[in-house]
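Quick start: what a row looks like.
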Amino acid sequence: MIGNDSLNLEVQERFYYDGIGIGKMKLSDFEIHPFSDDIVLAAYRIYSEVSNQHSLRSSIWKLNEGVWKIVFHQGKTKPLD
């Protein structure tokens, strides 16, 4: 597992356009779990300030001819504690 410190992430907030409007989201708890040299699982948490909801996200990435491409993505909302 590679944690936040190893990645030296600078991105903590993102604005996105989802076809309906612009929202403000915060990314946290980002981790990378290698399956092999060319396949990794990225897992992270997103907090939407618009909907006041947390979601858990994961995606599988494959290195293909020197370019990382997403091959699967999943997201699940998480109730507030």
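That is the whole record. Residues 16 and 60 are 21 Å apart (CA to CA). The helical segments are 4-7.
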